[in-house]
Amino acid sequence: MNWSASRRQFLLTGSAAVAGVAGCLTTSEESSASNRTDTTGSTDTPNRTDTATPAGTLAVSDTRTKSWAIDYDFPDSKDVFGEHGKQYLLFDVAVEGTTTVPYTEFELVAGDTTYQPTKYIGIADSPAPSGFGDRYTPTSDGWVAFHVPEPLDASSVVLRWPGGEYDVEDAFLDTLAEPPAEFAVREFAVGTADDGTRRRVTLTVENTGGVDGTFVALVAKEALDGDYFESVELSLDVPAGEAETWTRTYDAPPEAVAVYLRWAGAEREVELAPDERPTTAQ
Predict the structure, then answer these.
(1) Looking at CB atoms within 10 Å, which of 64, 72, 171, 198 has the fewest?
(2) Domain annotation for the chain: domains and CATH numbers
(3) Residue 63 in contact with residue 91, Cβ under 8 Å?
(4) What pairs with residue 97 in β-bridges?
(5) pLDDT digits (tens, 9 = 90+) for 37-61
(6) Is the per-residue pLDDT at 209 higher than 70?
(7) Torsion of Cα atoms, 273 then 274 then 276 then 281, to 10°
């Protein structure tokens, strides 16, 4: 996607996980599907599988699912990753000792369909860990991820690797089978604050679907030289049929700059007007 003529993606300089408060609606809107409420499934239960390998032991300690994820697209910048109709299913795998099971030897069997693990979320050569943490290696704990249909309606879901397997709990099968939440951006606008010396950006999102969900997005302010962006990660929990509002206040810039909103493959843009107060001669 061509997000900006000055820089392909956002340079990350800050982040926030935000729970909004309800706000008014406007007539300007764009709709998308996004995350259901972020869900994890504890697997420290009788169906946990500790599997001895020739040189170590593997155990699945947790399962997670997300429709959309924020992660690195360049070594110094992030973007929103995902695909409509799909979800990321991640297994946290604990390693005791050193195993001989490479990442690529895991597979997911859902009903009659077998899935191979996704190689990475974002880019492969990022110097920083993924937003999900570190990926599994034969010598260290980490996640094993699959990009599977959403919803995923299967009577059984099994993670398999040479010498072992893990059965996903029945309760988490219900989570995988839920449809994604549907969101509409009702407002993304700029107003003045603090006697005109600052600019307030307001975002209002409505969950138009039938399930609670999490709206995942990036909000980024362009720098004056147009070479990088000051980015904030958003994770707004929005109940079904309700709306939430998020705001952020910026100092009025000396010249106009853009602020971008990105979510679920979509983008909106507003402009921060410059500080036009007269200067006092020295």
Answers:
(1) 171
(2) 10-32+180-272 (2.60.40.10), 38-176 (2.60.40.1240)
(3) yes
(4) 56
(5) 555 443 333 344 555 444 579 999 9
(6) yes
(7) 180
